[in-house]
Amino acid sequence: MPAETSPDPRPRAGGWRDGRWILVGLLLVQLAVFFQFSPRYDYLQVARRWGVLAIPPNFSDLYFIAAAGATLRAGGDPYQLNAFDPMKRPYNYPPLWLHLSWHTSVSPTVIRWLAIAMGAFGLGAFLCFLGPISPGRGLLLGLLACSPPILLAAQRANADILMLGLVALGLVLLRRGQSVAGYASLVAATWLKLYPLFTLVVLWREPRDRLRRLGALVVLASLLCFAAYAGYLGRIFANTPTGGLHSYGARVAAFWAEFFLAGQGWAVNLTLLGRCCTLLAVAVGALALRCSWRRPLEATLDSTELDGFRAGAAVYVTTFLFSVSFDYRLLFLLLCVPLLCSLASSRASGRGWGVAALVLIFGLMWPNGLFWKPLLLVKEASSWGLYFTLTVLLLRTLRNRNSEIEIRKSQ
């Protein structure tokens, strides 16, 4: 039988047995050790031992945003030269951020408190999305939350933490039946960073008539976003770093090929290699499409977990296929973990896929290539395996729309 959704098909722990305490405890200990003790030693060396490609100073990406506002106030163009940024990085965020940063100081104290506020919002929204969980699941999520990509996002105070918070908040509002506010939160994330557009796949949860109305509004808001940014998109993409071996995406394999072939004295066309890797990813996606149509999932799934999985998987699959993203964007995989745990602990046909996806997530997020470079090969192999696995599971969940809607209507 096809997969069904329910309000909550599994037991949850409450009170002090709530696994979220373990998640928060592990994360806070990790952050305290890193931020309090590493500055007393060789800062960059300690960061690399943690597997973090740290850029001094701490919270450098928030400095980057605040510096753009300061450059604009001084009459400059941050898209050409972000003069107040410590590393003079050209600005590559949508112009809405310039309005938000217009009155933001580049003072270290202000930046520190903004970083704390952003981190608290992202973590709080994610914990609300999770709801009470078992200690085992809390330990699993805690280990992933302490992985190098998450610590990298914290060290740089990257805006993807805010995006995760907005997406998680939107999912919480959808769970409470506040659809307009929930989708508004997802659209707000899209206006701020563009790629959260793919989280709107959760619209598939709606009945057909409601899907048309809400879908039209969401599409209109998204089109207005891209129309407003039309004059900036070229500059944004041109100023965006292409990443490298410490990133993820189909074209990262081209960097590996260049690394090995150039070492043998071969001339390498990196652009051509990147296009070939993208074509390979398209072929893998086509294979995943074929596999997803063979057999539907046979499991009872929590509706909120399903929404979170669809949002997180859509972000990973699309960013893997179309771009090269720094590792901190892997934090969206945390949204996938609750449903994958439910699949892995079930006796349904999707159990093997759930176990495989969890193993691949650990293989992608934990190998520390800065400590021992061969581990980057494990990371690269895991990224391709996870791309295939999540694509299969995402397409399978999209097949279950009719039975899913009937369950939601009865809630």
Q: Which percent band covers the strand fraction?
A: under 5%
Average pLDDT figure: 85
Q: What is the oligomer described by this structure?
A: single chain
Q: Radius of gyration, rounded? A: 21 Å
What is the number of beta strands?
4
- Total of domains: 1
**Residues in helices, as a percent range:** 55-70%
Strand order of the largest sheet: 1-3
Structural class: mainly alpha
Cα shape: globular
Overview of this protein structure:
The chain has 411 residues and is mostly helical. The protein has one domain. The protein is 64% helix and 2% strand. The chain has helices at 20-37, 43-49, 60-73, 96-100, 108-130, 135-145, 148-156, 160-175, 179-193, 208-228, 230-239, 252-263, 270-292, 303-322, 337-344, 351-365, 375-399, 401-410, and strands spanning 4-6, 247-248, 300-302, 325-326. The longest helix has 25 residues, at 375-399. The two termini are 21 Å apart. Residues 7-11 have low confidence and may be disordered.
Topology:
Elements: E1 4-6, H1 20-37, H2 43-49, H3 60-73, H4 96-100, H5 108-130, H6 135-145, H7 148-156, H8 160-175, H9 179-193, H10 208-228, H11 230-239, E2 247-248, H12 252-263, H13 270-292, E3 300-302, H14 303-322, E4 325-326, H15 337-344, H16 351-365, H17 375-399, H18 401-410
Parallel strand pairs: 1-3
Antiparallel strand pairs: 2-4
Helix pairs in contact: 1-6, 5-8, 8-9, 8-14, 9-10, 12-13, 13-17, 14-15, 14-17, 15-16, 16-17
